[in-house]
Amino acid sequence: xxxxxxxxxxxxxxxxxxxxxxxxxxxxxxxxxxxxxxxxxxxxxxxxxxxxxxxxxxxxxxxxxxxxxxxxxxxxxxxxxxxxxxxxxxxxxxxxxxxxxxxxxxxxxxxxxxxxxxxxxxxxxxxxxxxxxxxxxxxxxxxxxxxxxxxxxxxxxxxxxxxxxxxxxxxxxxxxxxxxxxxxxxxxxxxxxxxxxxxxxxxxxxxxxxxxxxxxxxxxxxxxxxxxxxxxxxxxxxxxxxxxxxxxxxxxxxxxxxxxxxxxxxxxxxxxxxxxxxxxxxxxxxxxxxxxxxxxxxxxxx
Length: 302
Hints:
Elements: H1 2-20, H2 22-55, E1 61-66, H3 72-83, E2 88-94, H4 96-107, H5 110-114, E3 124-129, H6 135-143, E4 151-157, H7 159-199, H8 202-210, H9 215-258, H10 270-296
Antiparallel strand pairs: 1-3, 1-4, 2-3
């Protein structure tokens, strides 16, 4: 019971000390929060990029554009060839007449097109990959029809998705690097703050050492300092990330809406918040341990 009572006493004293120097404490919380917010924000970005690519219901595919005036039999032959491919789920053919009708309906140039002697638009088809198929499978399907009769152009619709995947990998590695760098920064900020707290209580520590206090008992109050600074920094980091999400919500919703998707932020949940607080507290304790070990070892009793 005395061990628990000592911990409760130290926790209460730490809260009083932090409250008494609220300006300094807020500055430390802000520095630690900024150090945690950037890598945590990159982690959220990477999670959402991965969620967007995995949940995209269009799946990669390819579009084949035929020569103007191509025979319908040639178009059907290419469509049947792609349908027989083991990695193609479905093939959608748009004839030249259908392409013209769609263009007239959406372009507002129906009167001008009626003056033309012949249809200037070609037939086309779009093939969609089966779920689980890879990009090389898509390349193989395209290569099987690129030299077919009446084929004018072949567009493999994977560029944007590949870029998203590459960007996700870049964000992931950048988050790891910045997480390590800013984690070290958070430890150093906490260690400096705890070192100042130790310097302000040197007389008390000398008395404790004279009466036979152990190294753990002398170090314990400053570990609480580090934990409080770390938890406060984690809370500030969560507030900063939340503020950023609020600021970018409208333009991001408009961007996703142009692709027919709703804004659904993944990862920013209670588990993420608890993890952020725990990481902040852990970094604070590590910084306090470094500061206490370095200063208390050289403590001299006059």
